[in-house]
Design goal:
This protein is mostly helical. 57% of the residues lie in helices and 0% in strands. The protein contains 6 helices and no strands.
């Protein structure tokens, strides 16, 4: 194996996590550059505009702006759910980069490329729909509870 091949494999494995990390950083930089606290900079939330209720994302731009400027307290005050989600996403992205940096485990892998002559290339079979797994249900319940609480009088601290 040449040195070129040995260095190309980790770069290929890093492409997706670094692209995701770059997109997230660019989004935070854009929101950090344009202050959502000034009226007219971003369109209003349609849920809040039509119903007067705060959706789970209301205050999310203000939270991202505060996080981009390093103000975690203001971010939590704007939208605690988005702030916690950004922290979880940051840890997940960094974990993905860490995993991509690890060397590939040794083992017999099929050669990349088209199937050998004579081998039938069958499209993968479609799997039946899978019900929402437990973590997805838990996340849905968390978002629903957050939305309900922030719109009740005793949950005013969660309102944007």
């Amino acid at each position: 194996m040449s040195d070129h091949t040995a260095t190309a494999v980790p770069l290929r494995r890093l492409a997706a996590p670094l692209a995701a990390l770059t997109c997230a950083a660019a989004a935070f930089a854009a929101v950090g550059a344009v202050d959502p606290n000034e009226p007219g900079r971003y369109p209003p939330c349609p849920v809040a505009a039509y119903t007067g209720l705060a959706c789970p994302g209301c205050g999310g731009l203000r939270a991202a702006h505060a996080l981009a400027h390093g103000d975690v307290t203001a971010a939590l005050g704007a939208n605690a759910l988005v702030t916690a989600g950004a922290a979880v996403a940051a840890v997940a992205l960094l974990w993905w980069v860490r995993v991509a940096l690890r060397p590939a485990p040794p083992g017999p892998y099929p050669a990349p490329g088209p199937p050998p002559p004579g081998a039938a290339a069958h499209p993968p079979r479609r799997r039946p729909p899978v019900p929402l797994p437990a973590p997805g249900r838990a996340l849905f319940a968390l978002v629903a509870a957050f939305t309900l609480l922030r719109n009740l009088p005793f949950g005013a601290a969660l309102a944007p």
